[in-house]
Amino acid sequence: MTTFPSITLTAQAFEPGALLTTFCAGRDETGAVASFVGLARAEHGQARLLELEAYPGFTDAAIAEFAEAARTRFGLHDYRIVHRIGRIAPGETIVFVATAAPHRRAAFEACDFLMDWLKSRAPFWKKEHGPDGDRWIEPTAQDRTDAQRWDQERN
Amino acid sequence: MAKVLLFGRLADQAGWRERPVEAASITEVRAALADEDPALGEALDGPGVQVAVDKAIVRGEAVLTAASEVAFLPPMSGG
Question: What are the CA-CA distances from residue B12 to residues A13, A75, B6, B20 (Å)?
Answer without folding.
Answer: 25, 42, 9, 17
